[in-house]
Amino acid sequence: MAGPATDTAPGDLFLQRVRRATRNVLGNTPLGQQVVALCEDHARSRVAILNDRAGGAAVVAVVGATGQGKSWLVRQMIRRSGTRELIASGNNLDQATEKLRWIGPMPPADLDASSEEFLMCPADQMEPIGTPYLIVDSPGATDDRQRIADVARRALAMATVLVLVVRRDQMRSHSVTVLNQIGEGTMVVPVINAVRDGDDSVAIDADAFQSRLRKTAPASLIVRPVIVADFDTVDQGEDQVGLQAAQQVASAIEKAMVENGQAGHRQTTRLNVLETRFRSALHSILRDRLPGLSDAVQSLHRETKQIPSHVAESLLGSGGSLRAVVRSRLRLSLMENTSAIWFPYRSILGVLNLTSGAWDRLLLSLSGSLPSLIGTIWAGTRNVMEGQNAASEIREGLLRRSNAAIDDRLRPLTLHFRSELSKLRQDAEPGDGDHSDSAVASLAGLDTLQEESQRIVQRCTDAASWPAWASTLAGLIGTTLFWALLAGPIVALYREYLSASYGVVGQGSGVLESFPHPNFSMILTSVLLSLLPTAVFAMWVVAMVQRRGKVHAVETQIRDEHHHVIGRMQSDGVLRLRWDDPLLADAEFLLSIGLKSMPGDRRANDLGSHDLGSHDQASNHRPNDQSATEDTEV
């Protein structure tokens, strides 16, 4: 037997989780047994799709409701072989079989004699479809309906191509739709059987039939139906009608296999459809049997989807705090891009950065105002403390806010959820429902979110910062402005100093009074007069760097990127609620399956609550035996 063609680990792990949650939450109750049975049926279907029992050959499953003539069609596909005589239509009880019948040049792997049989037919005696293949004939009708349903599902799961046979007068039967749904994801060749001569509306009805099949099974490839005439109403005999039917069906199968691509793609499609149908059926069962618990978990599920995003967005804080962070990082980037050689312009930038929000007092302090100087020092100290507090709030405040939000929004819902769960679990110990002081859940992924947030803020502010050449040009202008204004006193002092030095060294006069004696107030006044224009220029540079439009644009970009990262982390399962109570986690997981099922939820409910029986009571002589019945157990 060939191994699986795809990685089955994700599907197997999901099934294991469902089984474990079912044992923990539902125990050995009838509902728990029903869910376990659904899991086992799903596991068997997965194995049937993944395992290639035909040794690489295509599997053509001929399916249909009772009395549609599918056994007659199988005989036409192998009409050149004597094996056709061994295929009875099964309209008599002694001819009926519960076994799955394989027909082809070689038997399938791991043939189960209790439910399967193999009929040898050489490949050159089968109608050619362009590739080696095996025909699978579904079992006929018996009283053991569940056994027949299991065998019929096995045929549908293994099939490469489904040949869906339906009589002309039963095209609107609900069983046709269900047969197509169970085989969804594969290739389907509809065969409309027993079409009487002169039936002018058959073409229109065939198009409508094909459209209905495509709506009920959008993942399947539905080819145009093959029309098979009723040989009792046409001039041609049964042999000639059968020959034409076999050739048309074989051609349609070959065309469908070419259009539907590689086997791996078909297998993946069928696994995805099977998974969706299983989730929907499981959700339908639990919703119908546990309405109170299902409503409670839906409310809980909605909140668990909103809380991570709500808490994560609080990481950015209000608009004012985020804009303050952006301005601070823009000023810091300006400082980093300004070289230390631009003295004292760079030192002034550092002072302006430290005294943000108190520049008016800073200018007054330069004029000698003592209160302004004290206020400036206090503002700088406060800015340093606020920066430290903000960093601490980012590290510790997010966890505190997340715990508070989870407790406020989830505790009432979890108490209601536990109350509904206790009604189901009759074997709960006294006091199991008292969880008023226990933690509800915790938010996982906060550390990763903080790291991502820091990278986002750093990247956005770096992109909006002044380029290095602009910072260098501003440093050159600021430094030149300062030294140009201070050049007069400095040049005058050095001129007198150099003249006195020349008199002492060159002429030997040695008079100390000839050296300049500037007083400190003159030097301080000169420095302050030079610093003031430089400081004003530096203020203009900082104001341009952190102007309102730029800060607003950076804030918007940061928030947009945070929304994207939060959504991605939630979809990847990094940012999620982690339940502290294992029983609560299992129950929430079990009842949350299928909440986002496909639109045809009613369809999944029908599939989950009915059995499929593919019966064949057609006549041994022709496909339109009037003894056939329309009703099919589904």
Broad shape? elongated
Order of helices and strands: HHEHEEEHEHEHEEHHHHHHHEHHHHEHH
Mean pLDDT: 75
Distance between the termini: 32 Å
- How many individual β-strands? 10
Percent of sequence in beta strands: 5-15%
Major sheet attributes: 8 strands, mixed
Radius of gyration from the CA trace? 41 Å
Task: Pick out the low-confidence regions.
Answer: 1-9, 92-96, 140-144, 427-434, 597-634
Task: Figure out the total of helices.
Answer: 19
Task: Give the helix proportion (percent range).
Answer: 55-70%
Which class of secondary structure composition applies to the elements? alpha/beta
Which features would summarize this protein structure in a list?
10 strands, 8-stranded mixed sheet, two-stranded antiparallel ribbon, 59% helix, elongated, alpha/beta, 19 helices, disordered C terminus, 634 residues
3D architecture notes:
The protein has 634 residues and is of the alpha/beta class. It has 19 helices and 10 strands. Strands 1, 2, 3, 4, 5, 6, 7 and 8 form an 8-stranded mixed β-sheet that branches. Strands 9-10 form a two-stranded antiparallel sheet. α10 (319-337) crosses α14. The longest helix is centred in the middle third of the chain and has 55 residues, at 370-424. It is elongated and about 145 Å long. The protein starts with 8 loop residues before the first helix and ends in a 25-residue tail after the last helix. Mean pLDDT is 75; it is low at 1-9, 92-96, 140-144, 427-434 and 597-634.
